[in-house]
Amino acid sequence: MEALKSIEQFRELTEKETVVFVFSADWCPDCKVIEPILPRIEADFPMFSFYYVDRDEFIDLCGELDVFGIPSFVVYANGSEVERFVSKDRKTQEEIEEFLTRAESKSV
Hints:
This protein has a 5-stranded mixed beta sheet with strand order 1-3-2-4-5. A hairpin with a 2-residue loop joins strand 4 (72-77) and strand 5 (80-85). The model has no long low-confidence stretch (mean pLDDT 94). Helices cover 40% and strands 24% of the residues. It contains 5 helices and 5 strands. The chain has a single domain (2-106), classed as Glutaredoxin (3-Layer(aba) Sandwich), CATH 3.40.30. It is α/β, with parallel strands linked by helices.
């Protein structure tokens, strides 16, 4: 998964791609729990481009998007947010897959 490099890149990606932003941080235990399953999830949902967003590096963006808990996921398609899975709670693989399935149906 590629890491987000700038706010400008975020804006470009939201306009041009169907993208999942994964908000996380190195110090977050719940983020570490899902880390091993993310490559498989990425492979199972090839219609999305996935980007890792370091919460600490992009704290202003998190505030702008009301992403205060991590790990969290926000999906954009055609320039608009289509679905979000934002909370401070630990997420299971099944919950993430259900979320992405809903997002896929809304992004076509």
